[in-house]
Amino acid sequence: MYVWFASLLAGLVLLLLPAVRRTYFPHLFQDARYIAKAAWFGLRLARYRTRRPFYSLLERFTDAARTHPNKPFIHFEGATYTYLEVDRLSNRVANALRTCGGVTQGDTVALFLANEPCFVWTWLGLAKLGCAAALLNCNIRSRSLLHCFSCCGAKVIIAAAELRDAVQEVLPALRQQSISVYILSDGGHGDGILPLSGEISRASDEAPPASLRAKVTMKSVALYIYTSGTTGLPKAALVTQERVWAASFIQSMSGVTSQDVFYINLPLYHSAGFLIGLTGSIERGGTVVLKRKFSASQFWDDCRKYNVTVTQYIGETLRYLCNTPKVRGNEKEHSVRIAIGNGVRTEVWTEFLKRFGNISVRELYAATEGNVGFINYTDRVGVVGRVNFLHSRMFPYALIKFDTEKEEPVRNSLGLCVKAAKGETGLLVGKITKRSPFVGYAGNKQQTEKKRLCDVFVKGDLYFDSGDLLRIDQDNFVYFLDRVGDTFRWKGENVATTEVSDILAMVDSIEEANVYGVTVEGHEGRIGMAAVTLRDGKTFDCVGTYSHLANYLPPYARPHFIRIQSSLEVTGTFKMKKVKLVEEGFNPGIVQDCLYFLDLGAKNFVPLTEELYEAIVSRQIKL
């Protein structure tokens, strides 16, 4: 009797277990797989820390060049470069720089290049010499370019031929610092600018001795990647060899294999394109399709041509794809199965899946210099990840209450921060530990210290201030909500408001400028807007302001809306107030001040009328 009853009970339990799991633990298997993968890569990283000689991602690449030399590594504009070819080209770069440039282990070399294959083998060549590479944004000019170059301590700059004029503009300052300037071209340039392509073609393609990089360790700086900040100029985030390894694992965590073809359509000077796209593909031993610049009209044709299986995105790029005209035939006929990126809105995400098929969107949250990140390993639309036990133990983090008016964390009577409740918006902070360090910014101690938050939960503790607002719901899903402070994101680029304010203040008619980002319906991120005051007796110079901004700022950083005010409102500590300005936006029906719009066609600022406003929000005018 008891045996029969026990058997019946066991049978019922077995029958009910799947239903119980689906009801109460619907993501149990996904969580388990993610935790197992994370643990495995944690062990790999620990093993690399102790391996002698040091095994870097460069060695991972050279191993791949030996094991599958003829496998395509890079497809670019109809040309294909195998692993062996890229390896030999990187040897030539290393040998040329070693002999003609005197570049040695420990030097930092700035790369001022757009997306093209030579970016890849030039970086690999530098790595073979034990050098760090500073990845300069090829859109920056003048003061920003000089700042980015100088703060990393580089002694050499290698620029693309098409960027010669930008280099020429800052050449006198580079000369004063005894900087060696190379252009990837064959012809002579004079003015102290040296052609490098000829030296590379004449150099040996034999691998330089590994002893040239013998001092490189897991803690050595591998890269400087620039991120906009509150200083008004980009900050050089120090990316160590350990961080390069950790970032390269994101592809595998997302389900990418060595057989996949990865489409890099984002800039290589950004962490997304370089770390997730390029180094991730090297870690996997896969093939990349490199694009000079994202093109919505060519995207799916490229994917079909090269049998792309994995692509990356920012929110804007998926929206561009969704906005392309629908074509005849099945738009779901392609090989793309995974998309990795960040910043996509829920409605765009939903439309993208509906229109282009069942693609696993691996939305993630991370910062170049940050010490905590998330990845959406489920199919839940709109989230950046999930809370799980292993992740929170290995990389302690929390969401804390944040006062958006004062732009500072809320603290209790003891001077400690207050945790945000489930479902409540909070500022993400990551505990600074040996496993999750915050290395900081090159040549910028002030900004490094500003990102360190002390006395968070106990006196003396130290956390990294992400500057981002997130939310964790009752089911432990994590949502990214917004940025705080003096940075906003437009066209996939971070824009430092103080930098734009400084540039605007150089205009003869403008006294002061308060720059901020405002939302535009149907667009990702925030577009630039500035509230300005005018100098006594001056009127707003529409044409002159446009020309000035075009000369000093890349297109994504130029404010598209100008609001003329009699005075700028400031706080008690003389910080410019932005919350109300952001809320009011650029609607002439709400804003009583004079408003101007940046007319790209006319190359001018024009008065923003109700009719023009309606054309912008209805997307008749392209931003």
Q: Would you kindly provide a brief summary of this structure?
A:
With 623 residues, the protein is of the alpha/beta class. The chain is 35% helix and 23% strand.
Would you write up a description of this structure?
The strands form 6 sheets. This protein has an 8-stranded mixed beta sheet with strand order 2-1-11-10-12-13-14-15. A 7-stranded mixed beta sheet has the order 7-6-5-3-4-8-9, with helices on both faces. The termini are far apart. It folds into 3 domains: 56-362, Rossmann fold; 380-483, Luciferase, domain 3, CATH 2.30.38.10; 487-617, ANL, C-terminal domain (GMP Synthetase, Chain A, domain 3), CATH 3.30.300.30. The longest helix is centred in the N-terminal third of the chain and has 23 residues, at 2-24. It has 623 residues and is of the alpha/beta class. The protein is built from 19 helices and 30 strands. Helices cover 35% and strands 23% of the residues. Strand 22 and strand 23 form a beta hairpin. InterPro entries: AMP-bd_C, AMP-bd_C_sf, AMP-binding_CS, AMP-dep_synth/lig_dom, ANL_N_sf.
List the helices and strands and how they pair.
Elements: H1 2-24, H2 28-50, H3 57-67, E1 72-76, E2 79-82, H4 83-100, E3 108-112, H5 117-128, E4 132-135, H6 142-151, E5 156-160, H7 164-176, E6 180-184, E7 193-195, H8 197-202, E8 221-227, E9 235-240, H9 241-253, E10 261-264, H10 271-284, E11 287-290, H11 296-305, E12 310-314, H12 315-323, E13 338-342, H13 346-356, E14 360-365, E15 374-375, E16 385-386, H14 389-394, E17 397-400, E18 402-403, E19 408-409, E20 426-431, H15 445-450, E21 452-454, E22 462-472, E23 477-483, E24 487-490, E25 493-496, H16 497-504, E26 510-518, E27 527-534, H17 542-552, E28 561-564, H18 579-584, E29 594-599, E30 604-607, H19 610-617
Parallel strand pairs: 1-11, 3-4, 3-5, 4-8, 5-6, 6-7, 10-11, 10-12, 12-13, 13-14, 27-28
Antiparallel strand pairs: 1-2, 8-9, 14-15, 16-23, 17-20, 18-19, 20-22, 21-22, 22-23, 24-25, 26-27, 28-29, 29-30
Helix pairs in contact: 2-9, 3-4, 4-5, 6-7, 9-10, 12-13
EC number: 6.2.1.3
Domain AMP-dependent synthetase/ligase: 61-386
Keywords: Cell membrane, Fatty acid metabolism, Ligase, Lipid metabolism, Lipid transport, Membrane, Nucleotide-binding, Transmembrane, Transmembrane helix, Transport
